Structure formats: structure tokens, C-alpha cells
Amino acid sequence: MGVAAEKYLHLSNLAVAAAMDPDCWQQLLDEMGQAIGTHVCTQLIGYDQLTKAAPLAYTSGYDPDLLKLYEAHYADKNPFAANFGKCAVGGAIAADQLCTPERLKKTGFYADIIRPHEDIYGGGGSMLARDSSRMVLIGGNLRAKDRDKYEREWLRLCETLTPIIRQSLEISRAISGLSFEKWAAEQHMLGADTAIFVVDPAMTIHHACREAQKMLDKGTPVGSGFNRRLRFCFDEDQRQFATLCRLQLKGNQNIFKSWRVTDGSGQGWTCRLMGLRMGELDWSPFAGFLTKSITTILLAIKKDVSPISIQEKMQTAFGFSQAEAQAALLLADGLTLAEIARTRQVSIYTVRNQIKAALSKSGCRRQSELVRKTEQMRLQGGW
């Protein structure tokens, strides 16, 4: 039984979405394990010293107790793993090429792990990445009695999905490591359900995560035309976005900007924009569709909850006064103390005292910590 084109497309979409939403790796493995007409126990495993994502481990279909036994006694005694060096990056390899059934059956690994899983020594997988800093592979084990009928189809599925999965791993690596690490750690990633776009200075969309594509389909607060160029719904927001794109293209420093937009219904959205020059990285994070010579922009957009309800929650959670909560919210919007004073028509000394009080009551030592707590409450609706 072959895998239908619609199923390939669905699995490909899951692999693409996993670049920005790691939870999709688990869903991908779950569905790959059911895609060829028989059950396959699946795994995505490896390590990455660059991003400190080690070990990377997602599994589906294996007995939880046997997985614990594996971790405790066989993690360094896996006869398949001993021959991972035979795997060419990007290609599929059958399990019996890594360890023959005859040799496997003489091991405690077979007796304790493989045989209790209904003799799952068939299958195989693909090496996704292997260099001095990382190794990542995807694979699956199927029952010995299913090898003749299903193993070739399983390997074909792995080989077909490998280029897409490799690209997603590179994008995920870029966002979690190096220049993106500062953005994630210090510049307040917006959390779950964030729409993330990768665009070039001409505003052409090169990547849109699942939430981003939903946003494009709805057309608010951003949309795209036939040329796949991102456009904000309102001219003022679009002009600001275009200006930032031009600055990133012409400037010597990568830009970072945080601002809020409001759509026609009054719904607010928080936007984060970060510039990146590929040539500044030791590796090409978007290999395959963006070269190291290009400058790019990572745009994140997240829907706000009601500012009134968040203000009330901040007052309840931290014991803020109404004025202290308002000042903290404006600080999180990116306003300076002087701008907050002008907006609220009070002196800058009053604002300083209110922020100082908010820091004390919330247990924060720096304004950046207060902003992070405020953003978390705003974007997630509290704790």
C-alpha cells in the first residue's frame, strides 16, 4: 500500500510547521507511524552542541516501560547506533544495513527491547544532519513479519520527507541559537500561538509558520498578494514596516523594533521585528532558500488580550495601583519614561516613582524583568 499524495502533503506541512512549533514534531512522528498501512514505532533523536539542544528526543509507539529500560541500560549499547557512521546525510538506510538480524538476535538489546515490541527489527530511517557539532536522525522500527510488504514504503516515506525535515531543523536551529538567542532570551518571545514570518527587505515572505499562514488567510492584521509580499492592513502600519525593512537593508546594525497595531475591529496585536544578516553566522540557517549574502527579517505577531482585563490582573497579582499598572503596560509597549509621562500627562518623576513601586511589588530588579512579566500576562492572559 502506497502513501497517498494528500498524506504526503499533510506530513510535509507538519514538518514545515515544526520549524516554529516544536510540538509538531510529536504529531509528525505519530502520523508517520500510521501512514504506510501498518504500525511503525518512530523516533527523532540526536544532539546539537551549538544550540545546547541535547538530547533531542521524540518517540511514538514504543512501550513507555521499555523506553525507561532502554534509557537505563541500553542507551550506550544500541547495536544500530554503533553503525550510524554508515548513514549518508539525506539518504534512507534500512535497519539491517546497520545491524543484521542474525547479529542483533545475539544481543541483550534484542531480548529486552526489540523482541518484547513484537520483534520490531525491521524498518530504518534517514540521517538528517551529522557534523562536528551535531547529529540528528529520524527513523522507525516495524515488525519483522511486515518487512517484505512495508519496509520499502517506509524507507521511501523517510527519504521523501527528509529534505523538508532538514530545512525545518535548520530554521529551528537559527531561531534557538546564536543571534536569535538574544532575541529569544532578552527580547521576549511572544509564546504559544505566535505568528512568525521570515521575509526579505522587499517584504517577500520566505517562510510562514502555521499561525502565520492562518493570519494570512484571514487577512488581518497582515495579508499577502499574489506576489507573496507581506502587507499590513492599515497604511500607517505598512509604512512603518516598509521603513524598518529599508533600514535593515541599508544599515550597518541589525534592527529590533517592538510595536502594537490595531485592526478594524479594535483588536490589538503585539509585533516584534528583528533583522538578521546571514553572513554574520558561521552556518547558513536557512540553507536551501536564502543565501548567506542576504539580509532578512524575522517578524512575530501575537494577538493581545483586553488591556483593561490585564491591568486588573496586574493589580490583583502584584498589588499594583491603577497608575502603576498603566505605567508598566506602557513600558512594555516600548515607551520611554518621558513618553509615558507625556502620554499620561504627569511628570517624569511621578512615572519613575510608579515604575520603582511596580518593580518592588513584582519582585523585579530591572525594568526588563518587569516588561517580561507584563508581556507574559498580556499575551497569555495571566498565569
Automatic annotation (TrEMBL):
Keywords: DNA-binding
Domain HTH luxR-type: 317-374
Superkingdom as given in the UniProt entry: Bacteria
GO BP, sorted A to Z: regulation of DNA-templated transcription
GO MF, one example: DNA binding
UniProt protein name: DNA-binding CsgD family transcriptional regulator
